[in-house]
Structures are given as C-alpha cells and as structure tokens.
Design goal:
With 253 residues, this protein is α/β, with parallel strands linked by helices. The chain has helices at residues 7-16, 25-32, 51-56, 68-80, 117-130, 209-218; strands at residues 40-43, 61-65, 87-89, 101-106, 131-142, 153-159, 162-174, 179-190, 193-205, 222-228, 232-234, 246-252. It has an eight-stranded mixed beta sheet, sandwiched between helices. Strands 6-7-8-9 form a four-stranded antiparallel beta sheet, covered by helices on one side. A hairpin with a 2-residue loop joins strand 6 (153-159) and strand 7 (162-174). The two termini are 32 Å apart. Bound molecules: S-adenosylmethionine.
Length: 253
C-alpha cells in the first residue's frame, strides 16, 4: 500500500515533527479558528503534532488516520496529557461521522496523499457532508515547485545509541497527472548495527492554485480564499504575487 506510514516511518515522523512543532501552521490555523465553538475534525491526524495544540487551546477536536502506528503514537501523547481521545482509525476513502463539525482542518499537505482527482473530489464532497451549515474547511497544499525537487535525499536522527535514517529517492514524476512516486527507505541502527528497515512507496498529487480552487467549488464549497506561506493573502488577479511554498485554502460549506 502507498503512503502506509509503518512503524519506522511513524517513529521518524514523531522524532522529526514532535507534538507542537510548527511550520507557522499551528499559529495560523489557531487564529483562523478563533470564535469556533463547535467540534473540529482533522483527517490524517498523524502523531498528533497539530491536533494536540488545538486540544490544549480548548477546542474539541476529532481526528482519524489510516496508519495504526501513527494512531498508537497519537493516542499515547493524548493520554499522557490527559486530553480527550477522539482519535480513530478511518480512511480518506470511506470515513463517516454522524456528528456535524464546525471546521475541518488539514495541514501539512495531507490532501496530496490522495492521488486521483476523482477520489479527491469525492473526499471533499464527503468532508462537506460532515460540516455544519456554517462550517468551514482550512487545508494546505505544497507549491508545484516541490514536483521539480528531485532527491535522492538522506537524513538521520541520533538518539543516544540508536540512529534513525531516511533515504528518499524519486522513482517517477508524471507532469501529465501531476503526481510523484518516491521510495522512502527507513532504517533503525543501534551501535552501528542495522536493527530493522522499512521501505515505503510515497505518492503525492500536486495541484495548481486555480485548479484546486475550482475543485473546492465543484465539491460545493463557497467563499474560497487563499493565503501563501501563512502570511500573504493571494488573489488570482494579483499578477505581482510570488510563489509561496505552502498554499492554504479556506472555504465555507
Ligand atoms: C503528513 S502526515 C500528517 C500528520 C498531521 N496531520 C500533521 O500535520 O503533522 C500524513 C498522515 O496521513 C495519513 N494517511 C495516509 N493515507 C491515508 C488515508 N488513505 N486515509 C487516512 N489517513 C491517511 C498517514 O498515516 C499520516 O499519518
């Protein structure tokens, strides 16, 4: 399965992006969620990096994720802090909730893990069903420039005797489908000996700003606004704007 986030991948994610590690997203989303009284949903909650600061700010937050390994880390971190655990195993493809949410949040480009545009449209339509009449969605995508960013890239994390490594190599880039496929090789070393390794196939779909805005409209969302790098509001008529690394969409249901 692509984008499986197995046990080593989840360990590396938690070391590299621990609870509260912000890319500017936590502060930005919290400011946008001010005044929201009802529950919030975070699909692809991961280790809880983003969910836990929202809970600590007093929001009621539900989350789901497909990876049991990520969920295990998230649940441990939630329980260590005595916070309410509303996190469960569900997939983008078939999640359902009976309650209505006041907001859906999806930072870190998680929506790009949905490769097919049809599946992404279906996902957005189902998100809309989960929202209250006055609800809103806030989500990020990475700029198209990341499509050109070829590896291989190697990273490592030292944890006393233990060392975690990640080698990322691009396997395929489709400019037609705006997708990339990379091989992620995770390794756990202890005192110089290889303990375990894990290979993941990591697939992403990239979107243009106008294209994604149109997709949100097609899914039934209104009042779509765009912010670049959590700082600069962007309108399609702004011909002087420079490309941001992160593009955030906000839309009402
Ligand atoms: C980049 S991490 C984001 C974690 C967290 N939202 C954050 O901001 O740090 C992406 C998450 O998407 C989850 N994921 C991947 N495919 C999924 C799917 N089909 N359904 C639900 N979650 C999925 C992965 O398990 C992983 O935890």
């Amino acid at each position: 399965m692509d984008n499986a986030y197995g046990s080593l991948a989840s360990w590396v994610y938690h070391v590299d992006k621990p609870i509260g590690r912000s890319f500017g997203d936590i502060e930005f989303y919290l400011s946008r969620l001010k005044g929201i009284g009802g529950p919030i949903l975070e699909p692809a909650v991961g280790n809880g990096r983003f969910l836990i600061p929202l809970l600590e700010a007093g929001h009621v937050v539900h989350g789901f994720d497909a990876s049991p390994h990520m969920l295990e880390v998230c649940k441990k971190e939630v329980s260590r802090r005595n916070l309410p655990d509303n996190v469960s195993k569900k997939n983008f493809e078939d999640f359902v909730y009976s309650e209505k949410f006041s907001a859906v949040v999806m930072p870190a480009g998680s929506i790009q893990l949905i490769k097919s545009p049809i599946a992404c449209l279906d996902f957005l339509k189902r998100l809309k069903v989960c929202l209250s009449e006055t609800g809103k969605v806030i989500l990020d995508i990475d700029s198209l420039s990341f499509m050109l960013d070829y590896g291989p890239e190697s990273r490592m994390w030292s944890l006393g005797e233990d060392m975690l490594t990640l080698t990322e190599s691009r396997v395929k880039t489709s400019y037609l489908h705006q997708t990339t496929v990379s091989q992620l090789r995770y390794e756990h070393w202890s005192s110089g000996n290889l303990v375990s390794s894990e290979l993941e196939v990591f697939s992403l779909r990239f979107w243009g700003v106008f294209e994604f805005k149109s997709l949100l409209h097609e899914a039934g969302f209104n009042d779509v606004s765009v912010t670049l790098d959590y700082k600069r509001p962007f309108s399609m008529s702004d011909s002087d704007a420079t490309l941001g690394e992160v593009i955030t969409f906000e839309a009402s249901s």
